[in-house]
Amino acid sequence: MENKTIFDTVNSKTAFGIGFVSAILMVGTLGFIVLGGCFLKGDCTNLNGNAAQADDLAIAKEEAPAAAQVAADEPASIPIVSSTDHIRGDENAPITIIEYSDFECPYCSKFHETMVQVMEEYDGQVRWVYRHFPLSFHPNSQSAAEASECAANQGKFWEYADKLTENRASLGADVYLSIAGELGLNTTTFQSCLDNDEEETTITTMYQGGIGAGVTGTPGSFIIDSKGSATPVKGALPFETVKTMLDEILAE
């Protein structure tokens, strides 16, 4: 009996199809072996000259946030205290506490109480500098800051600031005018100042100064000693904590 192969029992078209499929399977198998080997070695860059460039791009994207973080951690620049600042206490006191604050912030209200106590117990040793840092998600913080500046134009900033803090939960146009009348301000001049946003630039300048100093939330404060060294005070620290910090500075 004559021996026949499979190709002897099929027609030419079928034989071609079988050969074509076999060739594809062989190429696929060879490619799988090559790719598998390079992945096991951890280096497939020879298969594609652009792979190394893609890796470099990915690394650059990952390193970008780290570089930004380094920049953010650089020493902050706190605007120096000047005659335009609101200063409470002895202007020649050896210690200065600069507070960036928001009249609608509940934590600022608590820290305001702490600072009032500091001024009472460290009379002549500490001066308190108040600067505005209205937060965008507090709808009345900007207008309250402007109202306090309109009061400052009539020499009543601190008295007005104390009243705003007491009325933190009900800030608004009626409250601003009511406090102005209570403090004996010229309400017509006060209202004109507020209606015309005459102190908007003042608030913006203080806010930008706070950003430059590294303030990210309120209250954001700095204790500055007689040598000019600044210690950040983040949040509404209680009086006892601030007292410890002050005593350590005064003991140096």
Helix tally equals 9
What is the helix content?
Answer: 40-55%
Major sheet: arrangement of strands: 1-3-2-4-5
Within the CATH hierarchy, at the fold level, what is the topology of the largest domain? Glutaredoxin
Q: What's the overall average pLDDT, rounded? A: 80
Unreliable stretches (pLDDT < 50, length at least 5) are 1-10, 12-16, 26-75
Largest sheet: 5 strands, mixed
Question: What is the H level of CATH, i.e. the homologous superfamily of the largest domain?
Answer: Glutaredoxin
Features:
9 helices, Glutaredoxin, disordered N terminus, alpha+beta, single chain, 252 residues
Can you walk me through this structure?
The chain has 252 residues and is α+β, with helices and mostly antiparallel strands. The protein has 2 domains: 6-72, no CATH class; 86-251, Glutaredoxin (3-Layer(aba) Sandwich), CATH 3.40.30.10. Helices cover 54% and strands 11% of the residues. It has 9 helices and 5 strands. The protein has helices at 12-41, 51-72, 106-121, 141-152, 157-166, 173-182, 187-195, 200-213, 239-251, and strands at 86-88, 95-101, 126-132, 220-224, 230-234. It has a 5-stranded mixed beta sheet. Helix 4 packs across helix 7. The longest helix is centred in the first third of the chain and has 30 residues, at 12-41. The model is unreliable at 1-10, 12-16 and 26-75 (pLDDT under 50).
Please give a quick description of this structure.
The chain has helices spanning about 10-40, 50-70, 105-120, 140-150, 155-165, 175-180, 185-195, 200-215, 240-250, and strands spanning about 85-90, 95-100, 125-130, 220-225, 230-235. It is of the alpha+beta class and about 250 residues long. It has two domains: about 5-70, no CATH class; about 85-250, Glutaredoxin (3-Layer(aba) Sandwich), CATH 3.40.30.10.
